[in-house]
Amino acid sequence: MILPNFILRQTANQQFEYSGMDSLKDCIDKQHFKNYPYDVDYEYNSRGYRDTEWPEDLSDVVWCFGDSFTVGLGSPRDRTWTYLLQHKLNQRTINVSMDGASNNWIVRKTKDLFTELTPKLVILHWSYLHRRESTTHSYVEDYINKEWVDFYNCIKDSSWPKCDRRQDFKKLSESIQQEIWTKHYTTDLERWLKDDVVNIVDDEYLRSFCSLDPKDGEIQDFNNTIECIESVESSKPIGTKIIHSFIPYFHGTKGNDPLMLKTIDHLKLKGYTHTALLDILDLARDGHHYDRKTANQLVTMIVNLLSQ
Predict the structure, then answer these.
(1) DSSP 3-state percent helix, strand, coil across the chain (nearest 5)
(2) What are the C-alpha distances in Å from 69 to residues 93, 100, 203, 255, 290?
(3) What pLDDT score does 212 carry?
(4) What is the pLDDT of residues 293-302, one digit of tens each?
(5) In a domain, 74, yes or no
(6) Is residue 8 part of a domain?
(7) Three-state DSSP class for residue 126
(8) What are the tens digits of pLDDT across the range 223-239?
(9) What is the extent of the structural domain holding 156?
(10) How many structural domains comprise the chain?
(11) In a domain, 253, yes or no
């Protein structure tokens, strides 16, 4: 199978009515959600991406990488930028995106692509600067333990002892261990109970670690973004064109955020192809992601860059 790492297990072959913050409970504006005039559903292909099945011949496709803005959260698929770009160019686009994806995830997927194929065109729709992965041993271990304790306390019988660390699972009686494995098995359980914490994290699970560490700050966010940009640019095959683009207010603030402008200045200085910053012209059903007008704005920029 080509690109075997390009599979999101949690969404492969799945279909959902709601996803992430695109629900009445979690949306930004409940009235906007109720008044949104289009039907939205989430249908994922066998690889777990919100896309139709990929063609066997991937020699002349446009590869699109991103987070939930590329997934098209809150919008019907035919109002997403990857879909609109496909019809504008009359060329198949391949949507490789994940809700909550970090910029590091986008880099990994892009470089995985480069190891197997020489794509003609790759479009990176970068996420927020603070979407960087914090994978230090202690941080991951603390997070895993918290998830494990929440799970254990939900399923435990009143007679069971405390088990505040995932490593203490082995200290439980054999009967309790067996009951957990047989009656309460989930795929997360296997991951939580692995000995090596490094092996716990995978591409989907790393979404949990894309928040700001208390000891870190904006400069680290900026530096990580620049490292991500340089990493894909330095590893691209000869003959591959990369277009960089950014979600609106990708640093999380409106207006001329200095780090946002500094990132664009870096792209200009290095001569990397990139779109201008987007204005939010409309909102998807969830009230946070953009809809067709803003998506069309991005598509127009991309098409204009390709014609130059």
Answers:
(1) 45, 10, 45
(2) 15, 9, 18, 19, 7
(3) 46
(4) 999 999 999 9
(5) yes
(6) no
(7) strand
(8) 989 999 999 999 999 99
(9) 137-200
(10) 2
(11) yes
